[in-house]
């Protein structure tokens, strides 16, 4: 079954292919009375937009969003919000090679195995271009949770991690890597440039924090906040892993070392002395920052020829000469933020439904 | 909102608390005509059962499952299958300390923040005892996908990894650690025993393989097979991370290194020369083994006192003296297998719906 | 696909067959902190219970409900509420005739066509016995909407309608017909008794009112309150029609005649001068009583032999000698009320989710 | 909560308002490999299109549909199909009166009560214009169920029923009333014309048949085929009642009279001697024609002034001078057909999921 909808009560459905006339999203369940215009959405699309530096794909898309429904006199009405983004740079390139053979690491073979069919134009529905639609939806989600501030950044590219001692949030939007440290930027520039020039590609790690989430969002058992986040992040193209809080590092910790002790806070509230748990216990938010980390594999599209087969079952090899990201994880940052916002908006409304 | 149902067309709903009279699951959407009796389910519950060695909790539960509906003359009818397991060892211990203060790392505080309420008897709904119900459901799921063989094992406890060079699948059911190597067992025995004696606890990593999954299961975009697996695994108590295939290691790889080249196989099929991707591309199975790894944090229940607060907001400290697993990840193995089976059964039926 | 769950955020899942060991329901999404015990549920089950007069089936079931989860110290916890009712009077009758041939009007043939299977013991899952589970769930739903008062009654049996001029709500619970007029009762007694004695059966019409529903419940487009009610009522065994407000009579009315004019009410509220619409406009409640009417066909189980075929395709005839309701619509009254409550509870929570 | 999606595995989501720039639908879950172009959809939109005779609203819309995704090289790909229809005749009329006061019978008051908001431009989301989107989706659904032939017609307008003895299916598309008898057309012309001239309006009854539905579609308990149909039909603007088969007439029948006796058919099949049940037993199709009837109220927009209140709570009266259907049920015919197709396509895929 095809299932292109996400969310339980704040729900969105994306549609569109890499090289079709347009792509879009329908957001259903948005509360009424929220001020919304294209200007609220466009900046997030601009942050994700390709072709802005030599470190990302050279495909140039205006990615101009248009609101087609659900907003009246500048405010949401409570009815479905339809957003559309036209594709403008579907270069009429020669797809004959791609059409013939499966690109390893892409969805070429699996879509064909499933549907008996291939849309070879830039990957069709499996293209990361789909994420533009959810970044647009995410901008609406953010307006549903004004109490929450969401920030994501790249924490590692290939083998080069961010120097966390130099973390500067203000720096993140100042460079094409969403990197919170200018010095690390210099190292990554060279790294990614080398990969680009040699036709190779690099993996990346993206971290995301949501501050301001009150205690009590999330739900047992199969709508746990961490489960919803894991599902959300794992839908992003090229992701291979998700962790909450300390994540995999917790395996090597002890119960004492991993504890988040509590103490009385101001005004009868509760404070935590640590946040190993990433702001979630028993699937429900603790009131601390909700944190997660997402692993992106190196882009599968590389210049180096890789063995593959044709649709007719012949052995061949393929290399990708098109406009591709040498490190697709970088452009994952706005998408990770969007998914965090979309999950939290949904959980906020769910919580309100049951607990008033 | 409470959401205790998982699955899209093969759906199950669990219910019950740690210290209530019983717990259970309703499985809806199971195909008709499948032979099913309690004897098909009981072995999986037995594998998960507590109190079988000194390395797990000493709570003793018979965990006897009873089929209450959906089976007639030994076969599934296509209508809901209701399974019930009675709780028999809810020792009438003294809960006064637990009832008063929040246990850090548990859901005590978050449930109270959400529901204004606490079931202090062993964690109530947030107890890992709930997983008995899904292990039972998982046994039914396995019968829906007879073409698939699912195997999980513990890959690491604390800082001590399995020696993979000595991997022996037959060994897994021979020891209380679900460990595929007898020599590693010896090391873990000492490690876990030390933790148990000192009142500490340990994290663990569980790996799961599903062999025999045909190419084509899974669906774009928000029902991707890897997204469903991530959601499923992240609902298990104490999990903090999920990865598919190489997972986080892919971050440090290159496009060439991470490629899974293809070649023609026998009879017009396709073969892969590697499986970095964990058997999933574009959210759809490739026909290779589907592999994932799950990180379990160290049990939060430890003898060492930890700072916390009472429901009235007073500072205090708490230590857990009850019957607890020194390494809760060990007993996660049958649960991880169950969730893999449940996701795959659902995806098989979904695929059949759309693609015939 | 089997789909035994109803509701969007206040959801319930029923299970069980006519002649299995038990039947039950899991209610998920109930708000926490609501006082609930078996004593809140039992009266509704008692009202629906068979064997209470000669006008209904002589099967005698205690229909004792047991709460297995989701309630702690007398209050709902916000986690799934599991209710179970044991079957006690599954008389070991001779099913050989029923097992061999399809009973026309029953689900015998269609279940076999769908599932390749038949549970001939009293209809299995298709038995009206399933409605006990939802009546139990409905009792919980009522506690979620204390502002609403729901009343249903029988409006017509066969060709004999209720004399509305003599409508007396207090009378409804005083007779075995849920009839709001004692004089009509006398007429129906004779009618139903004749049908029972002659082995025939009668249809019935049930009307339901919900008073106290505030304006604003319901949602566009495919979760309209009237659509949800229609779906809910049409799931009840033997129902063949549903109408809201004036329903089919509106076909012969004019726009002027069918209008519900409005005028200013007290305290800035709005009043309506009529309620042709049944309290719903555009799928959303108006604040007036929500009214609907449900048509029940005559019981298919009759003494008169009817032509049918055996599972092997041979012509035969069948007559039903068992314990059956001569007018199954009568016992539909508590079920109609339950479904009204379940829909409204769900819509109340949905409304709260989106509109605060 | 807003909920603008319908269906379980073949799902569609509509969006758009009467006077926004466009409206549309996203169809998800369509099987791959089905030939599809705008030419397959347009005829159904044309049949529903306003402004084609003096008996319907004079709003003139081209209703040209555009496929934006999900189709590649003329065939469905299995990914979401996005359809868009631009609004072209949103006449810039004076809405000041409508904006000020609630039109009785419309969703004006209820939307405001729910959302604190009003889109007064032609009813916004509550306008019957939304049905264009589902008629488009219905055209796709029909291609999923080529074995089924769906036909709907008007059976009654006001007090004037169709003469069934003169039923001629070929006649239905020959007149603006979707009437299967030319003589009845003459009577209805005069009737509707009188209503139009006097500023009044009329109700209508629409009947729909689906022939070729095999036995076995539908599912217990809350996804019964009749329940899904009732929900679907009751979402159509102005509907107030739905019945299956004999529907409300069954109330006055007896068990013998209402029976659909069976006999052996050719080739081991089963035949029925009657179809009182409307082709559904126990919620599952019998293999006979699936039949239902839908009641439409008279259009609420009439010239006769009706008492109402302003948003400020002042008493006033309102009459509708715009371009409205004197009998909105007439244009319900293509919508009823579309909903029948959408329900059946969904149920076909659901059946395939569970029963192979």
UniProtKB/TrEMBL annotation, chains A, B, C, D:
<keyword id="KW-0288">FMN</keyword>
<comment type="similarity">
    <text>Belongs to the chorismate synthase family.</text>
</comment>
<feature type="binding site">
    <location>
        <begin position="125"/>
        <end position="127"/>
    </location>
    <ligand>
        <name>FMN</name>
    </ligand>
</feature>
<comment type="pathway">
    <text>Metabolic intermediate biosynthesis; chorismate biosynthesis; chorismate from D-erythrose 4-phosphate and phosphoenolpyruvate: step 7/7.</text>
</comment>
<keyword id="KW-0456">Lyase</keyword>
<feature type="binding site">
    <location>
        <begin position="297"/>
        <end position="301"/>
    </location>
    <ligand>
        <name>FMN</name>
    </ligand>
</feature>
<protein>
    <recommendedName>
        <fullName>Chorismate synthase</fullName>
        <ecNumber>4.2.3.5</ecNumber>
    </recommendedName>
</protein>
<feature type="binding site">
    <location>
        <position position="323"/>
    </location>
    <ligand>
        <name>FMN</name>
    </ligand>
</feature>
<dbReference type="InterPro" id="IPR000453">
    <property type="entry name" value="Chorismate_synth"/>
</dbReference>
<dbReference type="Pfam" id="PF01264">
    <property type="entry name" value="Chorismate_synt"/>
</dbReference>
<dbReference type="GO" id="GO:0004107">
    <property type="term" value="F:chorismate synthase activity"/>
</dbReference>
<feature type="binding site">
    <location>
        <position position="48"/>
    </location>
    <ligand>
        <name>NADP(+)</name>
    </ligand>
</feature>
<feature type="binding site">
    <location>
        <begin position="237"/>
        <end position="238"/>
    </location>
    <ligand>
        <name>FMN</name>
    </ligand>
</feature>
<keyword id="KW-0028">Amino-acid biosynthesis</keyword>
<comment type="function">
    <text>This reaction introduces a second double bond into the aromatic ring system.</text>
</comment>
<keyword id="KW-0274">FAD</keyword>
<comment type="subunit">
    <text>Homotetramer.</text>
</comment>
<keyword id="KW-0521">NADP</keyword>
<feature type="binding site">
    <location>
        <position position="282"/>
    </location>
    <ligand>
        <name>FMN</name>
    </ligand>
</feature>
<keyword id="KW-0057">Aromatic amino acid biosynthesis</keyword>
<dbReference type="InterPro" id="IPR020541">
    <property type="entry name" value="Chorismate_synthase_CS"/>
</dbReference>
<feature type="binding site">
    <location>
        <position position="54"/>
    </location>
    <ligand>
        <name>NADP(+)</name>
    </ligand>
</feature>
<keyword id="KW-0285">Flavoprotein</keyword>
<dbReference type="InterPro" id="IPR035904">
    <property type="entry name" value="Chorismate_synth_AroC_sf"/>
</dbReference>
């Amino acid at each position: 079954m095809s299932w292109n909808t996400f969310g339980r009560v704040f729900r969105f459905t994306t549609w569109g292919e890499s090289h079709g006339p347009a792509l879009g999203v329908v957001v259903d369940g948005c509360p009424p009375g929220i001020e919304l215009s294209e200007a609220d959405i466009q900046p997030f699309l601009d942050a994700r937009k390709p072709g802005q530096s030599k470190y990302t794909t050279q495909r140039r898309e205006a990615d101009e969003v248009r609101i087609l429904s659900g907003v009246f006199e500048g405010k949401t009405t409570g009815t479905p919000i339809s957003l559309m983004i036209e594709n403008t740079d579907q270069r009429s390139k020669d797809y004959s090679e791609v059409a013939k053979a499966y690109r390893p690491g892409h969805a070429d073979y699996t879509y064909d195995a499933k549907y008996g069919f291939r849309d070879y134009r830039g990957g069709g529905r499996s293209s990361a271009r789909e994420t533009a639609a959810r970044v647009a939806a995410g901008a609406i989600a953010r307006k549903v949770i004004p109490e929450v501030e969401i920030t994501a950044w790249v924490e590692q590219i290939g083998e080069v991690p961010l120097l966390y001692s130099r973390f500067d949030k203000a720096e993140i939007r100042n460079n094409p890597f969403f990197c919170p440290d200018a010095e690390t930027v210099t190292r990554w520039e060279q790294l990614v440039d080398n990969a680009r020039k040699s036709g190779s590609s690099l993996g990346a790690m993206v971290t995301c924090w949501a501050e301001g989430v009150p205690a009590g969002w999330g739900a047992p058992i199969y709508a746990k906040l961490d489960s919803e986040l894991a599902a959300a992040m794992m839908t992003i193209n090229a992701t291979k892993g998700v962790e909450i809080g300390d994540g995999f590092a917790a395996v090597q910790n002890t119960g004492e070392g991993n504890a988040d002790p509590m103490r009385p806070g101001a005004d009868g509230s509760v404070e935590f002395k640590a946040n190993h748990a990433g702001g979630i216990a028993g699937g429900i938010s603790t009131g601390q920052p909700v944190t997660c980390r997402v692993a992106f594999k190196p882009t599968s599209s590389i210049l180096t020829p890789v063995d593959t087969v044709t649709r007719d079952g012949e052995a061949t090899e393929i290399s990708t000469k098109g406009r591709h990201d040498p490190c697709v994880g970088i452009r994952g940052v706005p998408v990770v933020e969007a998914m965090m916002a979309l999950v939290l908006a949904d959980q906020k409304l769910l919580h309100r439904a049951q607990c008033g």
